[in-house]
Amino acid sequence: MTALTEANIQDHQNISKTFKIGGLQGGQHDKQEIETYLSQIDGVDKVIVNLEESSVTVDFDPGAIHTDYLRGTLRSLGHDILV
To answer: pTM score, two decimals?
Structure first.
């Protein structure tokens, strides 16, 4: 197994993943909490919470973070993943 070099890391392209979630009754508080927590994760570039659609869209580097970790973080904040 070869170690990742800086060049390998830079080769990763960000992807965007949208999660439909439940438990957004807190409105703006939930929006700010999700955006704050997910934005602090290494590899996450952008987080958009859409209250009307009950969705969270995350732009991230799949070489740095896995979608399961993002799902786990949303669950730890009290939100069910619907899709």
So the answer is: 0.82
Distance CA 29, CA 74 (A): 14
58 contacts 7 by C-beta, under 8 angstroms: no
Give the bridge partners for 59, in sequence order: 16, 46
CB 80 within 8 A of CB 40: no
Q: What is the 3-state secondary structure (H, E, C) of the chain?
A: CCCCCHHHHHHCCCEEEEEEECCCCCCHHHHHHHHHHHHCCCCEEEEEEECCCCEEEEEECCCCCCHHHHHHHHHHCCCCECC
Total Cβ atoms within 10 A of residue 25: 8
Q: Is 14 exposed, middle or buried (0-12, 13-18, 19+ CB in 10 A)?
A: middle
Q: With a cut of 60, say whether residue 3 has pLDDT above it.
A: no
